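Second opinion, please. Pick holes in both lines of this record:
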Amino acid sequence: MLTVNATNFGLAPSDIQIKEYRSANLLVLDGEFIVDTSAEEYSGIRPMQLSVADLPFSKSRPSTALVTVLSEGVKYATITKVWVKDKNTICIDKILPYKSAGSYKVKLNTMLIPERITGEVALHQRTGHTPSVTKGEAAGLEIFTIQSDDWLILTLKATSLTFDTDSQTVEISVPDLAENASSSFPVLYNEGLWVALGSKYYPATLENGSIVISKDGNADEASNTGNKFTRIVIVR
């Protein structure tokens, strides 16, 4: 677990739980926290900063985190930039259009590598899965992962989702997926080419090899909605 000693945007470090995996040239972060945009500290800073115990390197290339918000009853998601500023500071860009919502959630789904690093590229093996939809329907469903002993990347894509009429969920069993991998994450979709607040999303969870995607009060999608998709990094 990453030790957070302080924040500069009004959130107590004890309210932040972030799983981590680290090596000399890799830092993987998996966790989330709520940002209060009405906090006095938040309004006067840019970017947000987490003060942490010593990191494995002093500067990183930029990476990303997922950000979700509820605005006028509609769920939106976007990404923001994350980077290591120094051995004890992780920076996260604020989402300015989300300020009026009062709060938003940052989901650290983040892999960081040092600046100015060179060396042989060693690719991890991609694993394709043959999922079984046990509740609802998921047309054109594809799931694959990249797995190490310490972390994994899960990617899901479906051309359409049909939610079970009783549970309002789509439930998917994924064989050959590590049972110790668990997470919550958004499954994104877009109803237009550009929306100021980002993509819409369905909330989803992964637990014990099962993915549950919930409609959770979302309105029916527009007829021209494209793929539903996610890509999530999980520390095991």
